[in-house]
Amino acid sequence: MAACIFCKIIKGEIPCFKLFESEKTLAFLDIQPLSKGHALVIPKHHGEKLTDIPDDHLGEILPVVKKLAVATGANEWNLLQNNGKGAHQEVGHVHFHMIPKPNPEQGLGIRWPQQETDMDKLKALFEEIKGKI
Q1: Is 95 annotated as catalytic?
Q2: How many domains does the chain have?
Q3: Whole-model pTM?
Q4: What's the Cα-to-Cα distance from 11 to each of 14, 41, 110, rounded to whole Å?
Q5: H or E element: which one contains 80?
Q6: Where are the coiled-coil regions (predicted)?
Q7: C-alpha distances in Å from residue 36, one per residue of 27, 72, 97
Q8: Which of 28, 66, 87, 123 could form a disulfide with 16 if both were Cys (CB 3.0 to 4.6 A apart)?
Q9: Which structural domain range is residue 118 located in?
Protein backbone atom coordinates (compact mmCIF):
# COMPACT_ATOMS: atom_id res chain seq x y z
CA MET A 1 0.00 0.00 0.00
CA ALA A 2 1.38 3.35 -1.08
CA ALA A 3 0.31 5.27 2.04
CA CYS A 4 1.14 2.56 4.61
CA ILE A 5 3.92 3.73 6.92
CA PHE A 6 5.04 0.15 7.62
CA CYS A 7 5.21 -0.65 3.89
CA LYS A 8 7.39 2.46 3.47
CA ILE A 9 9.64 1.21 6.28
CA ILE A 10 9.85 -2.21 4.61
CA LYS A 11 10.84 -0.55 1.31
CA GLY A 12 13.49 1.58 3.05
CA GLU A 13 11.67 4.83 2.27
CA ILE A 14 11.44 5.62 5.99
CA PRO A 15 14.35 4.74 8.28
CA CYS A 16 13.97 2.49 11.30
CA PHE A 17 16.11 0.91 13.98
CA LYS A 18 16.03 -2.55 12.39
CA LEU A 19 16.53 -5.42 14.81
CA PHE A 20 15.73 -8.37 12.53
CA GLU A 21 14.93 -8.84 8.87
CA SER A 22 14.21 -11.81 6.65
CA GLU A 23 12.34 -12.34 3.40
CA LYS A 24 8.94 -12.25 5.16
CA THR A 25 9.47 -10.49 8.51
CA LEU A 26 10.83 -7.22 9.87
CA ALA A 27 11.40 -6.19 13.50
CA PHE A 28 12.36 -2.72 14.68
CA LEU A 29 12.25 -0.48 17.73
CA ASP A 30 9.02 1.42 18.36
CA ILE A 31 9.60 5.19 18.09
CA GLN A 32 6.98 5.87 20.79
CA PRO A 33 7.91 3.12 23.26
CA LEU A 34 5.97 2.20 26.37
CA SER A 35 9.22 0.89 27.89
CA LYS A 36 12.88 0.32 27.03
CA GLY A 37 13.14 -2.34 24.31
CA HIS A 38 9.54 -1.96 23.01
CA ALA A 39 9.73 -3.39 19.49
CA LEU A 40 7.42 -4.09 16.57
CA VAL A 41 7.44 -7.30 14.54
CA ILE A 42 5.64 -7.12 11.21
CA PRO A 43 5.02 -9.41 8.27
CA LYS A 44 6.27 -7.86 5.03
CA HIS A 45 3.01 -8.89 3.35
CA HIS A 46 0.59 -5.98 3.66
CA GLY A 47 -2.69 -6.75 5.36
CA GLU A 48 -4.72 -4.73 7.83
CA LYS A 49 -5.85 -7.62 10.02
CA LEU A 50 -4.28 -10.92 10.99
CA THR A 51 -6.90 -12.73 8.89
CA ASP A 52 -5.54 -10.87 5.82
CA ILE A 53 -2.05 -12.36 6.15
CA PRO A 54 -1.19 -15.71 4.53
CA ASP A 55 -0.17 -18.34 7.09
CA ASP A 56 3.28 -18.75 5.53
CA HIS A 57 4.03 -15.09 6.34
CA LEU A 58 3.32 -15.58 10.04
CA GLY A 59 5.72 -18.44 10.79
CA GLU A 60 8.61 -16.31 12.04
CA ILE A 61 6.61 -13.88 14.17
CA LEU A 62 6.64 -15.73 17.52
CA PRO A 63 10.26 -16.93 17.23
CA VAL A 64 11.35 -13.33 16.52
CA VAL A 65 9.33 -12.04 19.48
CA LYS A 66 11.03 -14.65 21.66
CA LYS A 67 14.48 -13.55 20.41
CA LEU A 68 13.63 -9.91 21.13
CA ALA A 69 12.46 -10.71 24.66
CA VAL A 70 15.71 -12.55 25.35
CA ALA A 71 17.87 -9.87 23.67
CA THR A 72 16.26 -7.05 25.66
CA GLY A 73 16.66 -8.94 28.91
CA ALA A 74 12.95 -8.60 29.58
CA ASN A 75 11.97 -10.75 32.53
CA GLU A 76 8.30 -9.95 31.97
CA TRP A 77 6.68 -8.62 28.78
CA ASN A 78 3.45 -8.35 26.83
CA LEU A 79 2.83 -9.43 23.27
CA LEU A 80 0.10 -7.25 21.77
CA GLN A 81 -1.60 -7.45 18.37
CA ASN A 82 -4.75 -5.44 17.56
CA ASN A 83 -7.17 -5.93 14.65
CA GLY A 84 -9.21 -2.89 13.57
CA LYS A 85 -9.65 0.65 14.83
CA GLY A 86 -12.25 -0.42 17.40
CA ALA A 87 -9.63 -2.77 18.85
CA HIS A 88 -7.10 0.11 19.14
CA GLN A 89 -5.16 -0.59 15.92
CA GLU A 90 -3.47 2.67 14.88
CA VAL A 91 -1.57 1.51 11.76
CA GLY A 92 -3.49 -0.47 9.14
CA HIS A 93 -0.75 -3.09 8.70
CA VAL A 94 -0.55 -6.16 10.93
CA HIS A 95 2.02 -5.67 13.65
CA PHE A 96 2.95 -7.28 16.93
CA HIS A 97 4.25 -5.28 19.87
CA MET A 98 6.81 -6.90 22.18
CA ILE A 99 6.59 -4.65 25.23
CA PRO A 100 8.90 -5.25 28.18
CA LYS A 101 7.18 -4.76 31.57
CA PRO A 102 10.06 -3.78 33.89
CA ASN A 103 7.86 -2.30 36.63
CA PRO A 104 4.25 -1.25 37.33
CA GLU A 105 4.74 2.23 35.83
CA GLN A 106 6.36 1.24 32.51
CA GLY A 107 5.14 -1.04 29.75
CA LEU A 108 1.58 -1.95 28.91
CA GLY A 109 -1.25 -1.31 31.36
CA ILE A 110 -4.29 -3.54 30.96
CA ARG A 111 -7.84 -3.36 32.24
CA TRP A 112 -9.65 -6.73 32.05
CA PRO A 113 -13.41 -6.28 32.59
CA GLN A 114 -14.50 -9.88 33.13
CA GLN A 115 -18.14 -10.72 32.61
CA GLU A 116 -20.34 -13.34 34.23
CA THR A 117 -21.42 -16.10 31.88
CA ASP A 118 -24.23 -18.58 31.52
CA MET A 119 -22.77 -22.08 31.04
CA ASP A 120 -25.54 -23.17 28.64
CA LYS A 121 -24.88 -20.12 26.43
CA LEU A 122 -21.13 -20.72 26.69
CA LYS A 123 -21.59 -24.35 25.59
CA ALA A 124 -23.71 -23.24 22.60
CA LEU A 125 -21.04 -20.71 21.62
CA PHE A 126 -18.35 -23.37 21.98
CA GLU A 127 -20.24 -25.72 19.65
CA GLU A 128 -20.84 -22.93 17.11
CA ILE A 129 -17.19 -21.85 16.98
CA LYS A 130 -15.74 -25.37 17.09
CA GLY A 131 -17.98 -26.35 14.19
CA LYS A 132 -16.44 -23.62 12.03
CA ILE A 133 -12.79 -24.47 12.73
Answers
A1: yes
A2: 1
A3: 0.90
A4: 8, 15, 33
A5: strand 77-80
A6: none
A7: 15, 8, 13
A8: 28
A9: 5-132
